[in-house]
TrEMBL record:
Domain Histidine kinase: 218-424
UniProt GO molecular function: kinase activity
Enzyme class label: transferase
Transmembrane spans: 12-37, 131-154
Predominant cellular place of this UniProt entry's protein: membrane
SUPFAM superfamilies according to UniProt: ATPase domain of HSP90 chaperone/DNA topoisomerase II/histidine kinase (SSF55874), Homodimeric domain of signal transducing histidine kinase (SSF47384)
Official protein name in the record: histidine kinase
Assigned EC number: 2.7.13.3
InterPro entries tied to this protein: HAMP_dom, HATPase_C_sf, HATPase_dom, His_kinase_dom, HisK_dim/P_dom, HisK_dim/P_sf, Sig_transdc_His_kin-like_C, TCS_sensor_his_kinase
């Protein structure tokens, strides 16, 4: 999985990495220059001193005149000038050798079959060199710390307008209609372009919301009026003594369909409202009350299809819930069960956490169980004139109310929809 960092941390890391690369390059360069200068200058001084000893002192058979801290050895030299065996293994040229706690610069020369070695004590120089190295390392670490602090300060300064823009966009939905444009608050740079893009997107969103509000208001006005006329006509026909049994049965179906339509209109209107205060004003009822209404409404169609209806309400969660939403969810799940069950039974069971609708239909394959909650998706055995919006509506309602809906298989075949309601 890709590891994602915030933009502020990326800026800080960029500063630290750049400082580490540049500072490391300079530090290595300083150390390299010190070594090169040390070898060339000291090698030149030792070479001149060794040539003087060979061409002047030894040729005139005098004892070598050595400065303090110097040592001289020759391969055939007597006494203190006798060469230690370790120097025979050195190549000709400049070297650094150590004698216990002491360190020396050594220059080795071979001439006429004889080997000459001149040593110069460099303990003080080595100590100063270690101080220089410690200073280089300390400055390198300090530069990394300063780069981190500077990167943090700069990232806060750079990201301040972006964070302010994010806060404005985050709270934009509260006063979307009254919120002024954001682009004039920012400079004409990349953040300003981003603010202008948000203003454009918010403007388009506001147009969509206005159209949706107009649509919902039109629906509430245009559909409720004819539904009220139908309901009133059904009530008048119900008291007509001349109606026969078949006509009264048809009238009852019309009345039930009218009530269901009114419930659907109210459900869609509530879903179109994003304000939680508007949703809180919706009628509320207990789960047991809604379940009894749905059981009475669907028992007839279920048994008329030759199925057994099993309603169990021994337990039910406490509290009241959004009645239109709960009625719509339960009704859609029962309608789906009736639609896809040809034999067996349908069960509606209440529990302390919610309710379950279970059928003995053909079931839904595992690879389709998630997609059936999407709009216009129907099962593999789709039939009738349905558009595949029932389960999508159930999912939208549950998401809006904070409920949980899940689909489980039933052995040997069938579906089990479980709706979990949060405690109120």
């Amino acid at each position: 999985m890709e590891y994602k960092q915030s933009l502020s941390r990326r800026i800080v890391f960029a500063f630290i990495l750049m400082t580490a690369a540049v500072g490391g390059l300079f530090s290595v360069g300083i150390v390299g220059v010190v070594h090169v200068v040390e070898e060339r200058l000291i090698s030149r001084d030792l070479g001149g001193e060794l040539e003087r000893i060979i061409n002047d002192d030894l040729r005139n058979r005098r004892r070598p005149r050595l400065d303090p801290g110097m040592r001289f050895y020759v391969s055939d030299g007597p006494g203190v000038y006798a060469m230690p065996p370790a120097f025979y293994r050195l190549d000709e040229g400049f070297h650094e050798v150590f004698d216990g706690a002491l360190s020396f610069h050594a220059l080795v020369r071979d001439r006429n079959g004889r080997r000459f070695v001149l040593l110069q004590d460099q303990s003080d120089f080595e100590a100063r060199e270690q101080v220089l190295y410690a200073a280089v390392v300390s400055c390198y670490v300090l530069s990394l710390i300063l780069a981190g602090v500077l990167g943090w300060m700069l990232s806060r300064k750079v990201m301040e307008p972006v964070a302010r823009l994010a806060r404005q966009v985050r709270h934009r939905d509260q006063l979307l209609e009254l919120a002024p444009p954001m682009a004039p608050d920012y400079a004409n740079d990349e953040v300003g372009e981003l603010a202008a893009a948000f203003d454009y997107a918010m403007g388009r969103l506001q147009e969509v919301l206005n159209r949706e509000k107009l649509f919902t208001s039109d629906v509430s006005h245009e559909l409720r009026t004819p539904l009220m006329v139908i309901a009133s006509s059904c009530e008048l026909l119900a008291v007509e003594p001349s109606l026969g049994p078949k006509s009264r049965a048809q009238l009852q179906r019309m009345t039930a369909a009218c009530e269901e339509m009114r419930g659907l209109v109210q459900t869609f209107l509530l879903l179109a409202r994003t304000n939680r205060e508007d949703l809180a004003m919706a009628p509320r009822a207990e789960l047991r009350q809604i379940a009894e209404e749905m059981a009475e409404q669907w028992r007839g169609p279920i048994e008329a299809k030759g199925l057994r209806f099993d309603y169990r309400a021994e337990q039910a969660p406490e509290g009241q819930f959004n009645a239109p939403f709960l009625r719509s969810v339960m009704s859609n799940l029962l309608r789906n069960a009736v639609h896809y069950t040809e034999a067996g039974s349908i069960r509606l069971q209440l529990s302390t956490s919610g309710f379950v609708v279970e059928d003995t239909g053909e079931g839904i394959p595992e690879e389709q169980r998630e997609s059936v909650f999407q709009p216009f998706v129907r099962g593999h055995s789709a039939r009738g004139e349905g558009l595949g919006l029932g389960l999508s509506l159930v999912k939208r309602i549950c998401t809006s109310e904070g409920w949980e809906v899940s689909l489980h298989p039933v052995e040997p075949h069938g579906c089990r929809f479980e709706v979990r309601l949060p405690a109120v």
